[in-house]
Amino acid sequence: MAKTDLMKDLGPISQRTMADVVEKELRDYLKKKLFKPGDALPSELELADALGVSRNVVREALSRLRMLGMIETKKRRGMILSTPDILGSFERVLDPLIIDDSTLQDIFELRLTLEMGLADILYLRKKKKDIAELEAIAKSQDPGGKGQAFRINNEIAFHGKIYQMTGNETLMRFQNMLLPIFGYVISLEKVPQIGKVSHVDLVNILKDGSKEEFRQGMHEHLKPHFNRLK
Amino acid sequence: MAKTDLMKDLGPISQRTMADVVEKELRDYLKKKLFKPGDALPSELELADALGVSRNVVREALSRLRMLGMIETKKRRGMILSTPDILGSFERVLDPLIIDDSTLQDIFELRLTLEMGLADILYLRKKKKDIAELEAIAKSQDPGGKGQAFRINNEIAFHGKIYQMTGNETLMRFQNMLLPIFGYVISLEKVPQIGKVSHVDLVNILKDGSKEEFRQGMHEHLKPHFNRLK
Which stretches make up the HTH gntR-type domain (chains A, B) (predicted)? Predict the structure, then answer.
């Protein structure tokens, strides 16, 4: 039998470990049985017996769910299903040094997309007090000679404040996680470029201008980043 | 000694398990030593010795990193650092039944934000061939009497195709993960509402209209969802 025939007939064995399989089984089980936060789970021993695997493998799989925030252990009640932190594990892997280039590029664009898309929610929820805070951040940005590190922190403070003003905590955390990746991609270029619309300009639009004007202003502000795209 | 004094002086012991601690240690170690994808990791035994913990605990922590796609085991080379799937674990926890209400609402808004923000990248990359496909999806949506399930699938196909047209795979996968949550939030309302601008209208704007017109059209299309926001 030729080697290619053999490969076609057999194919490679799945690379999944026992922990992969058990983790998937457990997640499917919780879903199928409509477990809700607070519901008690069977014990490690019961699960191992039902699945016909060792307790070590079950412990490994449960440990993964614990990391995802899906389960927690309570005094006297044992393991219960919990409300997961949906961004917790995302945060763990967002390291520019281990992410491949095409994903880095995707994240760069994802941040631009969010920035361009948030005007609607921002205009729904912006408050005078917040705009004043944003203005203070914007005006503290150009005192001259504070250097690159200050500039980057100020950039993060300004855009972070805008996200905070949307009142959407997930969006804000998500954006905060994307920023280092965004900064990394920019740092690969030698000459930093600055858009024609400054932070102070954006604050002024936010005070008196329309949603559409804000969106156009944001686009101008981010223009050098859009120019990077292919 | 009063109970409150005692609580103040002692405070609760951290809820972190040994696996939590070791997982964090390992991630910090990989980061500090600038490990890159492909680099070989020390063995389970070496790690357990260095950390002064049992092999079981190390195995648990490594199993978590394996789930995140951060490490993999290679024939003859042992464990190596890998390129993680940044959305893999996010996908695992996106279940509307276990996410709390305020996060569900956040995700609902996150999807609206992406939808409103993607015009720039879409206009940069849209191709005639893709617009024709999008048109076919849009036109297949109103044949009458195909029912709710068809309607939802068609909705997913249409918006999914738009994301695909951006050429951003992360954005597309991310959106696909958000859709069920979005659908869940909508299903909590009794009467489904439809915006004035239809899928066919959006395709026509994409053919001949400007980026700004597309964005306005998308806003009209999503109007019933924006009306839900507080």
Answer: 16-84
Percent of chain A whose predicted confidence (pLDDT) is above 70: 91
pLDDT per residue as tens digits for the range B180-209: 888 888 777 766 677 899 999 999 999 999
For B81, name the nearest residue in chain A, comparing CA atoms only: A98
Task: Return phi, psi of residue A40, to 5°.
Answer: -80, 140
Inspect the interface and report whether the beta carbons of B93 and A84 lie closer than 8 Å. yes
Who among A94, A97, A168 is closest to B109 (CB)? A168
Residues β-bridged to residue B165: none
- Regarding whether B199 and B103 lie in a shared domain, the answer is yes
Among partner residues A19, A107, A121, which is closest to B113 by beta-carbon distance? A121
Give the nearest chain B residue to A119 (CA atoms): B113
B37 shares contact with chain A (CB less than 8 Å): yes
Cα B18 to Cα B26: distance, rounded to the nearest angstrom: 12
Please tell me whether residues B115 and B186 are part of one structural domain: yes
pLDDT reported for residue A171 = 93
Same domain assignment for residues B93 and B75: no
pLDDT tens profile A81-116? 999 988 888 888 888 888 998 999 999 999 999 999
Q: Which residues of A12-39 are buried (b: 16+ CB within 10 A; e: fewer)?
A: eeeeebbbbebbebbbeebeeeebebee
A54 pLDDT more than 90: yes
Looking at CA atoms only, how far is residue B116 from chain A in angstroms?
5
Q: What is the ipTM of this complex?
A: 0.86
Same domain as A114, residue A15: no
Of residues A72, A103, A124, nearest to B86 (C-beta): A103
3-state secondary structure of A178: helix
DSSP state, residue A196: S
A100 touches B: beta carbon within 8 Å:
yes
B58 vs chain A: nearest CA distance in angstroms?
A: 10
Tell whether B20 and B124 lie within a shared domain.
no
- Whether the pLDDT of residue A120 is over 90: the answer is yes
pLDDT tens digits along B104-154 = 999 999 999 999 999 999 999 999 999 999 999 999 865 555 677 777 788
Whether A8 shows a pLDDT value over 80: the answer reads no
Its domain, for residue A137, covers 89-228
Query: Which residues of chain B make contact with A99, given a CB cutoff of 8 A?
Result: 83-84, 86
Interface check for B59 against chain A (CB to CB < 8 A): the answer is yes
Whether B214 contacts B119, CB under 8 Å: yes
In chain A, what residues touch B117 (CB-CB under 8 Å)? 112-118
